[in-house]
């Protein structure tokens, strides 16, 4: 399915036409920590009897109409990978908003067994019940992550300050037609997970990335669309025109953004973009 041109999220206007008798759930991805149009998606899911799974990997501390991302659908997934705002190297969290799904999720987490029920005294022995694996992080990683949870508000505020500084620095370049800045709808409170720009059509992105590299700046392209990946071609079904998705993926550059990024470093990023590359 195509993305909308503003947020690059899931286009809720195209969902119903893509539903088939085999559809069981709608998986939404909150790209860059900006929420999808969840009210419309909830309505579609309710009318068609579908579950909603939120991929909120980039969404920790972000909200849609005041509700935390990951808490709106039936299930929500957060990531604590090293590239995220709150990190433990690897790992993540499953947020369960439908109580009917809790028991099976617990079994899957417990290597496919009902071991947790055994420790609560609900069964007299624990056995293999379902698929599962070993998903638990070490105590050391959990402690490392917990310390960041305690300062999550401070971390997010600093990232937002850096994000907003980029937005100000790059406004003249957008007005000059040299790039497009991210768009955040009014109903969304994002978390400054990433800052990206879209280059105009016809600009050599590889050349721009090479310019960044020559200046010692770690700017990168981002995701390859799933329908263009080898596994996507083998396993996935596409629906409709994917022009926006394909073109945005080819024009997008992700700028460096981390806690404590200096103003001088951001001005250096803006200078490379201002110089342009044809």
TrEMBL record:
Tagged with keyword Transferase: yes
Regions annotated as coiled coil: none
Keyword flag Lyase: no
GO biological processes: polysaccharide biosynthetic process
SUPFAM superfamilies: PLP-dependent transferases
Membrane-crossing residue ranges in chain numbering: none
UniProtKB keywords: Aminotransferase, Transferase
Pfam families recorded: DegT_DnrJ_EryC1 (PF01041)
GO terms for MF: dTDP-4-amino-4,6-dideoxygalactose transaminase activity; pyridoxal phosphate binding
EC code(s) of this entry: 2.6.1.59
Family of this protein: Belongs to the DegT/DnrJ/EryC1 family.
PANTHER family in UniProt: DTDP-4-AMINO-4,6-DIDEOXYGALACTOSE TRANSAMINASE (PTHR30244:SF34), TRANSAMINASE (PTHR30244)
NCBIfam families: PRK11706.1
Annotated protein name in UniProt: dTDP-4-amino-4,6-dideoxygalactose transaminase
Gene: rffA
């Amino acid at each position: 399915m195509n993305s909308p041109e503003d947020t690059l999220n899931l286009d809720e206007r195209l969902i119903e036409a893509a539903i088939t008798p085999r559809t069981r759930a709608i998986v939404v991805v909150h790209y860059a920590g900006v929420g999808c149009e969840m009210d419309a998606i909830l309505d579609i899911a309710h009318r068609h009897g579908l579950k909603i799974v939120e991929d909120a990997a980039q969404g920790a501390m972000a909200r849609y109409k005041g509700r935390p991302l990951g808490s709106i659908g039936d299930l929500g997934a957060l990531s604590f990978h090293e590239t995220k705002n709150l990190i433990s190297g690897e790992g993540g969290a499953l947020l369960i908003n439908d109580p009917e799904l809790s028991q099976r999720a617990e079994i899957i987490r417990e290597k496919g067994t009902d071991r947790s029920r055994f420790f609560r005294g609900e069964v007299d022995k624990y056995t293999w019940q379902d698929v599962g694996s070993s998903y638990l992080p070490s105590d050391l990683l959990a402690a490392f992550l917990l310390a960041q949870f305690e300062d999550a508000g401070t971390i997010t505020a600093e990232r937002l300050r850096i994000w907003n500084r980029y937005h100000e620095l790059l406004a003249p370049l957008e007005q000059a037609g040299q790039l497009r800045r991210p768009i955040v709808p009014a109903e969304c409170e994002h978390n400054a997970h990433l800052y990206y720009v879209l280059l105009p059509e016809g600009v050599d992105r590889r050349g721009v990335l090479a310019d960044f590299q020559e200046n010692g700046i770690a700017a990168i392209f981002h995701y390859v669309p799933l329908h263009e990946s080898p596994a996507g071609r083998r396993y996935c079904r596409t629906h409709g025109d994917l022009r926006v998705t394909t073109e945005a993926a080819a024009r997008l550059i992700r700028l460096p953004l981390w806690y404590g990024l200096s103003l001088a470093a951001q001005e250096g990023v803006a200078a490379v973009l201002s110089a342009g590359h044809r």
